[in-house]
Design a protein that fits this description.
mainly alpha; globular
Amino acid sequence: MQTILSNIIISVNDKLYVKNPETSELGKKIIQHSIILIDEIGFENFTFKKLGEKINSNESSIYRYFESKHNLMLYLSSWYWGWIEYRLAFATTNISDSMERLKKGITIVTEKIEDDSATQHINESILNKIIIQEFTKTLLTKEVDEENKKDFFIVYKRVINRIVELIADVNPNYAFAKSLASSIVEGALHQHFLKNHLKTITNCSETISPTDFYIDLIEKTLK
């Protein structure tokens, strides 16, 4: 799968950027170091001025790629879910047993992420930490309906709907497949957050992962 993924370009909605950052070395540098800087100081404290200082470039050069840091965060989120979508598709294609296929799919969307060396300018492990911490902030805005109409969240929704399909393969009569799938994908981010920061209100720990919890949940729910 690593070889296949190395030949794939993750497609991101072109309305999210002014200029595609994948088309230039500066653009890739902006993506690479924005991930590092957001992880270091948090999205609230992140500015294009600080990013420019980090990459030794003018703040104005970053605006030539993204009109706002919100759009940059939407871009990073869309790229992340696109990467998850590819991993999900390849990991589940050749599994014939429907429950095992669902378990594999749940593992992909809930596990702790390691860096993928096939994407040299993007550290997926760090990006995953940002998604855990910041992704819901891209959704919980007054502009969410308008941004949804522009398909800013379409890749995220495709990931969830792929899990819906896997659930239906196991139990086509289960009436709440969409709610279950969205709870798994979104809930996994929350459980990782709790495990890292609010340990007393989750059973997830160094020995029990969010993946363990959600696989146990679907086995008992869909039996």
